[in-house]
Amino acid sequence: MSSSATNTATYKFNHTMLRVRDHVKSIKFYEEVLGMKKFHESSGSDFTNYFLAFPGGFGDKADASDEEKAKVQLNREGVLELCHNHGTESDPSFKGYVSGNEDEHKGFGHIAVTVDNLEAAVKRFDELGVKFKKRPEEGRMRHIAFIYDPDGYWVEILAQQRP
Amino acid sequence: MSSSATNTATYKFNHTMLRVRDHVKSIKFYEEVLGMKKFHESSGSDFTNYFLAFPGGFGDKADASDEEKAKVQLNREGVLELCHNHGTESDPSFKGYVSGNEDEHKGFGHIAVTVDNLEAAVKRFDELGVKFKKRPEEGRMRHIAFIYDPDGYWVEILAQQRP
């Protein structure tokens, strides 16, 4: 391939970025409630971006070099980037971020996580005190749930196997 | 594993949902400019959700059964769901969706696509008339670009290999 060529078949939908008010709470949620792992972070003068993903595709090798990790990181899909603007977590005047689902500023809707067993996942979320936007038994769509992340973003939960 | 067990290590960050004003324009953009493929759609009474992804992981088998496709679809990552509320594309009073980057309603930031060759990808985008939020040569971060999708959502473009 010449240096001027590009092949879109090699492109990857690498990540989705959400701003978060309190990175500690958000990383705790995505790691402890959902099972992602933070694998990288990078900072500017007044912000830090945290990169998380589910295991697999990573080669979670403890001995991987930074170069190896970076290569995997940029070649995989399903990465979540959490952008923390320093200070929002302790600023009482900070109004919070919009989820994208409010009437006045609709746009982004949600991210979705597929799970091995919806009923068991929901039971575990209940044990962990997770807040639901919609439980599976509510409404007509019994095969999906929506939970809130710490900023109020919607996370759809659905089974990997159709019922 | 018992029926009540769930293992978060099997979870997948399956998709990200964005509302779009005009599904025809948006699907054209994500397919023809970025190289994704629409592989599924589902409708309610007044909306249709379109699911797109980059090839690979799919097994783009022409003879795959719907069941096989559904299984792959729910077990992979990097899916983009575009939600079209019927009629917005021809409604002059429709104000459009927010990108999540406006001062008054910040939240979601962007999706990111990694490419084989940033310079070549940018050249191709220019040939296709794509609008840039930030070209690689603008600002300090020379290794990334941001383009606009038809609704004004930001799509970060960065190389799969660090320079």
Automatic annotation (TrEMBL), chains A, B:
Keywords: Lyase, Metal-binding, Zinc. Binds 1 zinc ion per subunit. In the homodimer, two zinc ions are bound between subunits. SUPFAM superfamilies: Glyoxalase/Bleomycin resistance protein/Dihydroxybiphenyl dioxygenase. It catalyses: (R)-S-lactoylglutathione = methylglyoxal + glutathione. Its cofactor is Zn(2+). GO terms for molecular function: lactoylglutathione lyase activity; metal ion binding. The active site is at 156 (proton donor/acceptor). Catalyzes the conversion of hemimercaptal, formed from methylglyoxal and glutathione, to S-lactoylglutathione. PANTHER family: LACTOYLGLUTATHIONE LYASE, LACTOYLGLUTATHIONE LYASE GLYOXALASE I. This is Lactoylglutathione lyase. It comes from Kwoniella heveanensis BCC8398.
